[in-house]
Amino acid sequence: MSGRTALVWPAMMWAFVLTPFAMNTLVALDTSTEFLSLAVAVGDSVRSVHQHVGQQHAELTLPTLSRLLQEQGIGLDAVDAIAFGNGPGAFTGLRIGCGLAQGLALAHEMPLIPVSTLAVLAASVSASRVLACLDARMGQVYWAAYVDGVEVCPPGLFTPEDVPLPDGEGWLLAGSGAAAHEAALRARLGAALAAVDGQASPRAEALISLARGGRWPACPPDAAELCYVRDKVALKTHERLAAA
């Protein structure tokens, strides 16, 4: 683990200084949607899996990761950091991913790199101007905008009719929110839209690139936080009836 230096803080906390060499070997995982996306990168070699698993993230993540590590010929002790999508997204999936990442990082004394799920989604498509949009259920979407990978509209929770209007034209609308609410979003965005990709989802290969890019800082496992955006999981009965 030569590029990684542990520092002991007075409050018995620790952090890591990551040198460029320490970013050589990374694990990336995203469990924020119905897809399980995993990647193990050793230098320029990346082994990955991106598959629809529904609600089976807890059962499939570790076995799949073990297989990818084996394909790369390394164990977790050789990994320098774990990058994970920290939301927004499905509450249960986010907690599973964060919990697994924290457990592995603590056991093997490595840092975590939390990255916005919406940033990962934007980096997973081939476009410079991306409206990242995940279905948040309850008639809402998680939303953010990126230009050449730079966030120009921070993550938020909106109804399709009220998403922030982007500047200019030529935007790609990407993600499960686009599939679930395409008509309403097209009506809202009008001429700003160049294309829609409702099949796009956050991919671990893109997460590897973002983690290596330096914009997303590493942190101790116990300091990693999830970005839920929404603080309410389900509607009450009277709210469902009112929305019907």
From TrEMBL:
Signal peptide: none
GO terms for cellular component: cytosol
InterPro entries named in the record: ATPase_NBD, Gcp-like_dom, T6A_TsaB
Domain Gcp-like: 53-147
CDD domains on file: ASKHA_NBD_TsaB
Gene3D superfamilies reported in the protein's UniProt record: 3.30.420.40
Entry keywords, A to Z: Membrane, Transmembrane, Transmembrane helix
Domain of life per record: Bacteria
Transmembrane segments: 6-29
Gene Ontology terms describing biological process: tRNA threonylcarbamoyladenosine modification
SUPFAM superfamilies the UniProt entry points to: Actin-like ATPase domain (SSF53067)
NCBIfam families in UniProt: T6A_YeaZ
Record's protein name: tRNA threonylcarbamoyladenosine biosynthesis protein TsaB
Annotated source species: Rivihabitans pingtungensis
